[in-house]
Automatic annotation (TrEMBL):
Gene: adhB
Domain Fe-containing alcohol dehydrogenase-like C-terminal as annotated: residue spans: 196-386
Domain named Alcohol dehydrogenase iron-type/glycerol dehydrogenase GldA: residues: 8-185
EC number(s) on file: 1.1.1.1
Pfam families, sorted: ADH_Fe_C, Fe-ADH
Gene3D superfamilies: 3.40.50.1970, Dehydroquinate synthase-like - alpha domain
Family per record: Belongs to the iron-containing alcohol dehydrogenase family.
Keyword line: Oxidoreductase
GO terms for MF: alcohol dehydrogenase (NAD+) activity; metal ion binding
PROSITE patterns: ADH_IRON_1
Protein name: Alcohol dehydrogenase 2
Length: 389
């Protein structure tokens, strides 16, 4: 056995623990620069409450920016410039509050504000620009997730999009794991059912893909099993009743575990195809992963039968099926879950056309696809995607 395991330094998890944000933030600095990832957090008073709780703990704060879309190169460059004008240096730290989009923007800006070899994040992204490395420590960062999906609060990368040219790439460094995670599942109660469904399936996809990845490791696998046992029954409940404390707690915990798992073990085909589905077809990340998950499980079945059976038995210890039967039953269970929560079965329902397939195949060859448990040649991936039209 031989592995490296990276994990967040501080995780504070629990219902209504948002109230502790001031006390927790005091360990990071005296002045908070806030980046948020949803207009709902402005309209439902969460941002106002955040600033008031910080103030009561003696921390001054400034709300820098809200985005309600997946962050682009231009967002990171623009917000980094604003931060440079507002930052005073010692005592400053960032708070990223929102879904994966807001947290990723905050993560990228926390790194870019201290690494200024180039004016644009483009030059630091994997495989594009000048290929610069992050050498300086990012500004301290607290991450407060408000969706239960990406686990970005626990990962070492920020995913940044560009639409012309079209790509989605990561800014990545072990130093980018947020210094402090405050995960209050109550914050996700305002997430509408459709977004709950697709972000939740992103977490389930991450738990599954990291479990079967070619880079899978024992510690993340244990986390994935725990996450799947929580998330698979909880997700339909969270979609049906967004105020359910148990469902929101289980989903938030599963998403957090999925972030730790993916950061250590990598992902696979569903997460390989999701970036070009985002940049070429404007499909939100979680939805892209959700539609791709059943077909990814089927494509890997020949090399993952044992792992699927292990997961199926963990979910149902009374299962008496053979490995082959258990693996098939597990894939059917995931398809049924998608159907139950309203995830479409095809990409054509999301507007994808046959003419886009060559770009989707070409755009899918990133870091995630390299974790897939078997190689999927271009011709096979083309056929798989054509089968979803
Ligand atoms: P998101 O952050 O884009 O949010 C989806 C929608 O939910 C937005 O409209 C947002 O306004 C809304 N929303 C967020 N919180 C809300 C709340 N509490 N109440 C009401 N509405 C709320 O979606 P996401 O799926 O969380 O993040 C997607 C992004 O994360 C993508 O860019 C994806 O590539 C990236 N990602 C990053 C990592 C990582 O490790 N860094 C991992 C997976 C995905």
């Amino acid at each position: 056995m031989n592995y490296d395991f990276f994990a967040p330094r501080q995780i504070h998890f629990g219902w209504d623990r948002f109230q502790e944000v001031g006390t927790l933030a005091a360990s990071l600095g005296t002045r908070a620069l806030i980046i948020s990832g949803s207009r709902s957090l402005e309209s439902n008073g969460v941002l106002e409450e955040l600033q008031s709780l910080l103030s009561r703990a003696g921390i001054t704060s400034e709300h820098i920016r809200t985005i309600s879309h997946e962050p682009e190169v231009k967002d990171v460059d623009h917000v980094t410039n604003i931060l440079q004008h507002h930052s005073h240096g010692a005592g400053d730290f960032l708070i990223g509050i929102g879904g994966g989009s807001g947290i990723d923007l905050a993560k990228a800006c926390s790194a870019m504000i201290t690494n200024r070899e180039s004016e644009t994040v483009l030059d630091y992204l994997e495989g594009v620009g000048q290929g610069l490395q992050l050498t300086e420590e990012p500004l301290p960062l607290m991450a407060i997730p408000t969706t239960a999906g990406t686990g970005s609060e626990a990962t070492k990368n920020a995913v940044i999009s560009s639409y012309a040219p079209a790509f989605k790439k990561s800014l990545r460094s072990p130093e980018m794991i947020p210094d402090l995670i405050l995960c209050d599942p109550k914050l996700a109660c305002s997430v509408p059912p459709e977004i709950t469904a697709r972000t939740g399936m992103d977490a389930i996809t991450q738990l599954l893909e990291s479990y079967i990845s070619s880079r899978a490791q024992p510690l993340p696998q244990a986390l994935s099993l725990q996450g799947l046992k929580l998330a698979i029954p909880a997700l339909p409940l969270a979609v049906e009743d967004g105020s359910s404390r148990t469902a929101r707690e289980n989903m938030a915990h599963a998403a957090l575990l999925s972030g730790i798992a993916l950061a250590n073990s990598g992902l696979g085909m569903a997460h390989g195809v999701a970036p070009p589905l985002g940049t070429h077809c404007r499909i939100p990340h979680g939805l892209a992963c959700a539609v791709m998950l059943p077909v990814t499980l089927r494509a890997n079945r020949s090399v993952c039968e044992t792992q699927y059976a292990e997961i199926a038995r963990h979910l149902d210890p009374g299962l008496t099926l053979s490995d082959a039967e258990a693996a098939d039953a597990f894939i059917d269970q995931i398809q049924a879950l998608n159907d139950q929560i309203g995830i479409p079965r095809t990409l054509s329902e999301l507007g994808v056309t046959p003419e886009q397939i060559p770009d989707l195949v070409a755009g899918s060859r990133g870091n995630s696809m390299r974790g897939n448990p078997r190689e999927i040649p271009d011709e096979e991936l083309t056929q798989i995607l054509q089968g979803l039209l």
